[in-house]
Design brief:
Elements (H helix, E strand, L loop, with lengths): L12 E5 L2 E4 H24 L4 H27 L1 H6 L14 H18 L4 H19 L1 H6 L13 E2 L14 E2 L2 H20 L7 H18 L8 E2 L2 E2 H22 L4 H4 L7
Antiparallel strand pairs: 1-2, 3-4, 5-6
Amino acid sequence: MNFFWNNYLPDPVIFELGPVSIRWYGLLLVTAIVVAAWDVRQQLLKKSKLTSHQIEDLFFYTIILSLIGARFGHVIFFNFSYYWNYPGEIIQIWNGGLSIQGALLFGLITVLVWSKKYNLSFWKLADVMVPAVALGQVIGRWGNYFNQELFGKPTTGWWGIPIEASNKVVGFTKDTYFQPTFFYESILNFVLFFTLHKLLQKKLKTGTIVLSYFAGYAVIRILMEFIRIDDTPVVWGIRLPQLISMAIILAVLASIYILYAKPLPKTKKSCIIVVF
């Protein structure tokens, strides 16, 4: 049995228009943003009193600052020494290098500030928005496939993906097929998206959906980091993304305790966001 990608080396460039290259990574990123924004818009129009103009305003700032945060997180936390030596490459996001942790941090801060501006509940707004984040990740992860990056350990399984010699990781240059971690994460994120959407239909305490997303994605990322072989900082023998995910899970458990065991006034609940 063979998978469709067994004998196919993807080209990161779709086509070129003079000096401009249209890449799969960029196209999939834009597609992920558009699909996620459409889903959020439908939910906000259904579950809130926000106008179309307000929703567009929210999207504008959240998308732009989330992208800045995604690049910021990747550059500062995961590849600082490289970009310190090659600062000109910081703006080259079409070559990959976006951190979901940075995107979430900047995105949450943006939504928090925006909700305060319009005197809205941050947690209610975030509850409606986070399922679409998982949906965007379902699509966006395929950009890693076309860039031939963030793949996993070698495998002899029929589902393995071939990697071009120039993209292989040191120590694995003689191996041919590798674990398609982008595919695993895409599937798991779809399960997370579906679960969050189902939870959104239930009467749960405000903030539960947000916390469920963070816990769910943290578990997914911990699992994926056991398979991935890309270079990343290691702290106390643990890959940094795993360490961050573990910290997030602890923060989620503490937040769930506050929400369900010892309910606090709204003014204090909003402080939970600091831990993320």
